[in-house]
Amino acid sequence: MKKIILATILTLICTPFILIGQQLNLESSITISSGSDGFGRPRIALTNNGPIIIWRKDSTPKVIRASKWNGSSFGQPYDICSSGVLPSSWDGPEIAAKGDTVYVVFTSTATSQSSIMLIKSFDGGTNFSDTIRVSANNPSHKFRMGNIKIDKNGNPIINYMQYLLNWTEPKQMVNKSTDHGNSFLGGIDASFSAPGEPCDCCKASLVLDNNDIYLLFRNNINNERNSYLSKSVDGGLSFTQVSDLDDYDWIVSGCPATGPLGVVNGDSILIVRRSGSTGNNEIVYNNIDKLDLNYSYTRNIDPIAGKIQDYPDLAINGDTIFIVWKDNRNNTPDCFLSYSTTGVEGLSLGTNFTDTTVTGPKLNPDIEFKNNIVHIVYNHNSLNSIEYVKGSLATISTINEIKIDRKRTINFDILGRKSKKPFNKLIFK
Question: Do residues 65 and 55 touch, judged by C-beta distance below 8 A?
């Protein structure tokens, strides 16, 4: 019996090199509003003068509150819409800003059936208009779960769901304005090409790329609740392409209550979403080709077996990517962050960015990124507080050593004699 054993002799040569990267520095959270003046589902947008934050106040009637950066701090909260706001924590208002133009879209109960309404500001959020109806004035339908983006001309493009009065026949509608929100062209069904029907309680989202518009939504085919993408190449007048984004079907009898979100990433769209198709309820991301809507990969960020990850959001600029989500890995809902300055391959595992000294659920994170500054908001459910976290990317340099391995491989038999046979496995004769 003879056994061949491999011995490898290494020679290491070390040479110094300088590594340049970027480190994220997060500041302590700032309470924007709390108690009876605060409540839930904050959203954030960036104007010329800095961030503006909106949220739904838990009052009777429900109102939309706002606070904006004044150059040194956030100002006192103020009402921007004081009546008719739908009392729902998951169908809250949405905000978008470009320069000093700010749009807020929300579901209203001021009409005989729920409707999608818009308010707008052209001075960075100091003053807002009266409400403008976006959805059709149709007594046979209800509308809810609005979302909004601003096109290159400063006009709002709004997505929402349409139902019959008994909440059947859901459709994902897209409606655009060409006069800065004074009027709208009429809703277009952007989900009609998808099989089944849209998941009736999951918000959709929009991605704009010049004249192309992409609608991201969750679909429902007999409780197969995969994420889909629908595309318009004529500025939202029609939607002619549709694609299933899931590698594996997610079969779930209840509503996930969350849909996909995406941003333009070069020739692709980077999408984040919740999926349970692998057995875990986890945040995954896709890279989707903008032309043919095929995805090149689907990956999870930081799966934790037996836990639920939900409500993701993302911000991107070049290779710098930030993703936030809600996560109950510590048995209480909290908010986590993953980021990279080197593209998706460098995305970190989840990091808790909230104030851990105060216990209780933290929910509904939202994020924006500009000029190397990241802005995050969330709500602390136990305190009814709206919290803001600021982070900055700093360039760091470190001196490391490259270790160059120069290898000599020598094979020995069991008796210590050199052998010409290479080693693959134990060989017995």
Answer: yes
291 near 276, Cβ under 8 Å? no
Q: Domain of 142: which CATH number? A: 2.120.10.10
The strand pairing partners of 74, in sequence order, are: 69
Q: Which residue has the tokens 């996930």?
A: 256
Is the pLDDT at 181 greater than 70? The verdict is yes
Residue 298 lies in a domain: no
In a domain, 375, yes or no: no
Tracing tokens 């709206």 back to the chain, one arrives at 386
What's the total number of domains in the chain?
Answer: 1
State the Cα–Cα distance between residues 12 and 229, nearest whole angstrom: 51
Q: What is the pLDDT of residues 242-298, one digit of tens each?
A: 999 988 899 988 888 899 999 999 999 999 999 988 788 999 999 999 999 998 888
In a domain, 318, yes or no: no
Which residues lie closer than 8 Å to 258 by C-beta, 6 or more apart? Answer: 202, 203, 218, 273, 274, 310, 311, 312
Q: Which residue stretches of 175-249 are H helix? A: none
Residue 6, domain member (yes or no): no
Name the pTM for this structure.
Answer: 0.86
Angle, vertex CA 296, rays to CA 250 and CA 239, nearest 5 = 70
Helix (H/G/I), strand (E/B), else coil: 242? strand
Distance CA 251, CA 176 (A): 33
Rounded alpha-carbon distances, angstroms, from residue 377 to 32, 67, 363, 396, 406 = 9, 12, 9, 26, 51
